[in-house]
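Regression test case RT-17, inverse folding.

Input:
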């Protein structure tokens, strides 16, 4: 059974940085597409970043140049490095894993989801 556990969320001031981690069990981070999504109160869940099995990455326009998705195969962990954080980045962030080699931001492509970690950015 696949389980995804996120960590690293918190509260920082605008301009600060956070690194989110996602440690799966029953799943290998390097095998298929994985991604990070977020959902702010009153808004729909949106794709933030994804990484395909062959390491190609994709980012939402709103986070390009500020966020970096990566994975450590030795630690079997997925990361999201977030820099220059802004109040509009405030949301619950979710790790997602698929059984697909290709990547996109369609939530239906991801079969497994974590419980989320809260990120709050103050002005």
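Golden output:
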């Amino acid at each position: 059974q696949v389980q995804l556990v996120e960590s690293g969320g918190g509260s920082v001031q605008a301009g600060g940085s956070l690194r989110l981690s996602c440690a799966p069990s029953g799943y290998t981070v390097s095998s298929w597409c994985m991604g990070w999504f977020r959902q702010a109160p009153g808004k729909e869940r949106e794709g933030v970043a994804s990484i395909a099995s062959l390491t190609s990455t994709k980012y939402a326009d709103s986070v390009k140049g500020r966020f970096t998705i990566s994975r450590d195969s030795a630690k079997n962990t997925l990361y999201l490095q977030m820099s220059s954080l802004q109040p509009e980045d405030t949301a619950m962030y979710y790790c997602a894993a698929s059984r697909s080699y290709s990547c996109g931001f369609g939530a239906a492509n991801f079969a497994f989801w974590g419980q989320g970690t809260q990120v709050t950015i103050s002005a």
